[in-house]
Amino acid sequence: MSEDNTYDPDKRDLSLVTVFNKENCSAQYGYQKMDDLTVLERKKIPVVVYSNTDATPWAVMITVYDFNSFQTMTYVQQVYDSEARTPQVFQKDFSAVEGKQAIADAHRALTLLGGNPPPLDKVLGAGDIGKPKISQRRFEPRG
Fold it and tell me: CA–CA separation, 67 vs 62, rounded Å?
């Protein structure tokens, strides 16, 4: 919240992963730079499974934001009893993503991590985030 009690999404904290290693990979969630145009975001998903083992089931939702192709790829990696399951992959063009703030957050995270994505206004097209684009249509009377 800002001083006037308004929420500013451009100033909220982003969890940035600057070093990723095998020893603590299961505790590293947030944004990680893949290359200058690509960033991924990891989110831990609490999974409730009733089983006879003492293993702790968990899953990770990973969304890759590709600022070269203007697409996202999302998948959930599920792990039970230390065995990974094959994930389903969902791919979307940025234009099909309803919550444009997610793209803006990924863009800001990639920039903070040293990436070089295209300008955000080019990525999102004309207009502000959250404001629908208004197109001018000409209606002709039916004869």
Answer: 16
Contact present, 103 and 123 (Cβ < 8 Å): yes
Phi/psi at 30 (5° precision): 125, -160
Q: Residue 123: enclosing H or E segment and its boundaries?
A: helix 120-124
90-101 tens-digit pLDDT = 999 999 998 899
| Whole-number Cα distances in Å, 117 to 30, 70, 121 | 18, 10, 11
Confidence of residue 135 (pLDDT cuts 50, 70, 90): very low
Q: Which helix (H) or strand (E) holds 91?
A: strand 89-93
Nearest to 73 by CA among 45, 106, 27, 44: 106
